[in-house]
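Retro notes - structure team

What went well: the batch runner handled both jobs without manual restarts.
What didn't: labels got mixed up in the shared folder, which is why I'm recording both outputs here explicitly, each with its sequence directly above its tokens.

Job 1
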Amino acid sequence: MQAVIPNYLGLLALAPMIPLLNIQSVTKTYNQTRAVDNISLSVPEQTIFGLLGPNGAGKTTLIRMITSILYQDEGSITLAGIPDNTQRNQYIGYMPEERGLYRKMRVGEHLLYLAQLKSLSRKQAKQKMDEWFTKFDIQDWRNKQIGELSKGMQQKIQFIATVIHDPKLIILDEPFSGLDPINTHLIQDEIFNLKQKGATILFSTHRMEQVEEICEQIALINNGKILLQGKVQDLKNRFKNNEFSLVYSGNLPQIPQYIFTIKQQNHQSIILQLREGYTANDVLNYFLQENITIHSFNEILPSLNQIFISQVNNGKVVKEPVVG
């Protein structure tokens, strides 16, 4: 007999302002070390949210508490109002960094088994599995043993196992590990598709370029504490340094030091920094008055990698090398 799971997710329709995942004042201590130290975090529904931090920052411990693998010492974690209990896991799909596939099981048998653990009937599980096999064009893998597959192929099977029951919250820890560029884009596209269909994705990785491509919001954790959190674009604007790149034609006139200074100069291009009280329009007006042809003029925003390193280094500004 299939378990009957209460429709807790109906609470979202009644109270749309409640975040899907709500973490309040959560603490976890191992011996004398606080792996998670009074963390509060809200993840909005239907968002791709990046959970970032160096090794040992507390990310994995926090994820294990969200999935009820571990229990917090203090604080609360709720998913759409569902408190800490095993029912919550029916709405979660978790893809850990350490993969958990049984190497001697066949692919189809393994996926059916894992889907039924998430309360799908065998018929439902088979239908979902067939849909994913068709989508990834891997129908021929059905009877292969997991151990026969390459690391990248196993990664795709692990991804299917994570999302086969249409979880409301999908937790992906380094989901692109071992994938070639083609399969990376394939999984990335499916992450966006799942989000469009209503899923919320909690995405944990060390690769900042993937975070910039995928995530709408992030939280940066270090030493068990949140250093900063917010929308990716808002954080970039918060840490910008009033620098611009300009590509031009003509002879560069005398630089008005009261408006801006030149930080770097190459052939027919400069990187400049505005003085306080001046705007980008002041720069453009100056060059136009000097009859300089402007081909491009762009504000330079810090990368998430720069923000990440500077915050982990206690706010010390870190410049990335400029190529060219």
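Job 2
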Amino acid sequence: MDAHFERVGLCRKHPRSVPMSKLFVSDIQPQMQVEDTFRIADRQLRANRQGNLYLLLQLQDRTGIISGMKWNADEKLVERFPKGAYVRVQGASQLHNGVLQLIVNQVSLVDESTVDAEDFDAGNRVDVDTLWSRFSELVLSIQDTTLASISASFLKDASVQRSMKLAPAGIKAHHAYPGGLLEHVVSLMELADRISHHYPYLNRDLMLAGAMMHDIGKLEELLFDGELTYSDSGQLLGHLVQGIQMLDRKVQELREAGITIDASTLLRLQHIIVSHHGCLEHGSPKIPMTLEAIAFHYLDEMDAKLNAAMAMISSDRTKDAWTPFNPTLGRKILKPKPTDLQS
């Protein structure tokens, strides 16, 4: 990307002007003059190959995120624009490898009291109330006494309910928007329910409980009520360890209340949590070693990768049949025809 910016500078074609009404990220097209207010989701000071510094901004509103680059940057400039701040940006849009981005000419802070918060609230991307209702139904369908008790204790926890409706499943990789974690979890519980009928030797209750709790640690790993970033404990421990800690606390509360928890069942649930990344290189301290853990890892991988692929397709503004190469997925994606996406 750095070399590309060095070559192109500003777009050679004269960018077309846009209306004075609110311009959302989803409205931005290539070769467009852009001047509007965005929220800073992230910012970094970077250097190109010649050592020239630039400020890389991740600019957000309720419709998405776009990258913006401001030349002639230094540490003082970075400090002026903290994460979560609202900024007025003037620049020009361009495509780089099929991804839309801004060359920023001017950027200035905006008083938070002057913006319409609804323009920056991405919470309407998913219907969290409907998802929570289905989540509750699936949790309450668990029959095993131990797994039902543990699952219900999380379900009835008001702080868990609030956080699940707000939390993304990640910062960038997949389901990276408010309610994304709940959407991901419900999707996996639905898949776990269906696959247990196809493979009757899989324990349905264990699969559902594993789907429910595999990423529960992200409620403590991430900070998402405002600026989206990692907590200190999230940086130092990670959501697999934090998920086990949260589970252990619930189990202790249940035991103190006189509820019997089967140690073998608990161990198999813990194993799904710590092994669901699938391999040591991806952060799992153990690889999946039970039938349910093996099956769940592939369901989780599929749901995450398909969501990431669809995000790539949605963000690609070119008319090419293929998306640009994505280093995270390690491939290009052939875009489906519009008729293929119709249900």
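One thing worth noting from job 2: The first helix runs from residue 2 to 8.
We'll revisit the folder naming next retro.
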